[in-house]
Amino acid sequence: MSLSLLHSARTTALLSTVLLFPLASLAQVISPTIVSFTPTSGSSGQAPQGIAATTVTITGTALSNTLSVLLNGQQMRILASPANTATSVSVQVPREAITGYLRVTTANGTALSASKFTVTRPAGTGFLRLVTNSFNAFDAGTYSTAASTDLDHDGLIDLLVGETTGTIYRLEQASANSSTFTNLGQLKLASGTTLVNDVAGATREYAKPVVTDMDGDGLLDLLVGGEDGTITRYEQSAMNALTFTTIGTLPGITAGSTVKPSIVDLDGDGLLDMLVGGADGTVRRYEQTTANGAFSTTSTNLTTAGTTATTIDVGGYSKPVFTDLDGDGLIDMIVGSQDGYIYQAEQTAANAATFSTPVQMTDVNKTAVDVGGFAAPALVDVDGDGYLDLLVGNDIGTIYQYEQVVSVASPLPVQLTSFTAQAATTGTLLRWTTAQELNSAKFVVERSENGTSFVAVTEVAAAGTSTITRAYQYQDGTTLGAAVRYYRLRQVDFDGTTTYSSVVAVAATVSAVTATAPAAYPNPFTNELTVALPAGSGVQATGIALLDLRGQVVYRATLQLSAAAKVLPALPQLPAGLYVLQMTTAAGTTSQRVSCQ
């Protein structure tokens, strides 16, 4: 080839590369991000008090067509309204939810929130009451083990019950918050055949199920422990489907024999932990190696804490489940045992993988809860009252139902229904509401930089005794000194008795020191919108205008504003959607988008 021809060929190749480069850039995959979520805390609902499960709106980028949102291993229902967009997705807190980080997954990747969503839950007395020893007269045959979910996302609980021969029954709630369940028969594969937990055609006995979304694709995964110590994964055949596809055994995991898996995120790193009980009475921990990925094949045993730490052992055939019974932010492990008793142990600290020594759960007479043999607990809020029920399988195949005992003779002085923290340029806005108050003197707002050591910030007078909903708020104007700040409420009675709320965390997404633009929050907002000028601004006349996307003014006011936050007065009820907020001072006009939901 001549030198000129060689030069021409190289030039053509170079031009091709240059021309193709922009096309490759355009095709670049954009992974989702989470900027914030609101509210930062909420409950799974309390139907008797008319409190619905909390709707959480996550804002960020590249959130279109969100496949899955997990809260500490539990799938959150993605709501159709408000619609999922590129910048937001709204989900509902599930009934059995535990405080934890939010993981959002789309087809292009996954993102983890910077702070935890705090699940608020009413605290009972710590005692259990037997409701029935034959829940809905169901009998699986022998060795029943239950798990709760909502396969078709119709708002009704699906109770999946494994039994000796390796099949799994589905019982569905008759109506919302009903204690009546209908036995719809054994689960089936997409092919129409009965799902039987087996290996190479040899039936595995003692099917022990748990439900999660292991890979974040929006399809529920059914993980089933078997007699031989392995765990088999089955995945929903389609969104909301009642049938499954066999994926196969989880590779490299053998946890003794007759194993029962459970899913939670113990250490708060956003990776799921699979906790597996077995015939030896211990609980093994396997952690995902990557987000939405496989579990490590190396396990560690759960232990107590301290220099004399011992392996947790409930005697034999341990079957663990995890929750936060008392809403104190520490995970409780509820473990069934071969002896028929149910044991409880509490996480020694937030994000710790160690627990207190397990103790037997009892009724109000301090008599140990006993289902006869091979207790297999599941956590379900059957009646939607906010208190988790225990549905406990056993060796004879029935289901016992226990509910938490709530003291009615000595009611809690305050029924706190929400407590949220919102970062802003002017500090942190704290809001809380109560459904009722009894001899309540004051609320003490406490703040922490590390989540453990709290100091009092201010006191807010309480209502005394009240049976109506009351709303409170306080603006903590100090600059966030840490990436995450923690708050809690100390409620004080007239007699000096104190009660603490759950802890809420707020990320320092906005800096009061460096902010140069006016603030508007919460965003999205509902009935109230709070505004403030940049840090250091003095009081000055400020024109406020709120425009819809057609440019039509829907609200106008003139306020004396400064860096101190102020709620817009007489804000009308606005349709959901995007608006432009204009704030005009002597220095000029600024505009920013806000969303009403």
From TrEMBL:
One GO CC annotation: integrin complex
SUPFAM superfamilies: E set domains, Integrin alpha N-terminal domain
Alphabetic keyword roster: Glycoprotein, Signal
GO biological process: cell adhesion
Top-level taxon: Bacteria
Pfam families: FG-GAP_3, Por_Secre_tail
Domain Secretion system C-terminal sorting: 521-593
NCBIfam families, per the entry: Por_Secre_tail
Protein's name according to its UniProt entry: Por secretion system C-terminal sorting domain-containing protein
